Amino acid sequence: MTSENFQKVLDALQQRQPFHGFAVELNGGRRFEIDHPNAVVVRDGVAVFLAPGGIPIWFDHDSVNQIIAATAGADA
To answer: 38 to each of 11, 14, 35, 49, how far by Cα in Å?
Structure first.
């Protein structure tokens, strides 16, 4: 995934109204859920997600296998 596309996809998912959670799957298969629009910060192809309990998860455009958006009809 390119740095520019990474930024665009995450920005679009964070700004959806109403917000729906989404998942990020890393190249090694690790997956985590972004559960709040302000819980992730992205800049220059690098992101940090503050997971519940304040645990930071760092990821970048090269480490992402896929970003999985919840559908509008799905329960978030």
So the answer is: 11, 7, 9, 9
Structure tokens belonging to residue 7:
């930024």
How many alpha carbons lie under 13 Å from residue 55 in its C-beta half-sphere? 7
CA distance 65 to 15: 22
CATH of the domain at 40: 2.30.30.100
| Residue-number span of the structural domain to which 48 is assigned | 3-69
Number of structural domains (the chain) is 1
In tens, the pLDDT along 14-72 reads 999 999 999 999 999 999 999 999 999 998 889 999 999 999 999 999 999 999 997 55
Enter the pTM of the model: 0.85
Nearest 5°: the CA angle 70, 74, 75 is 105
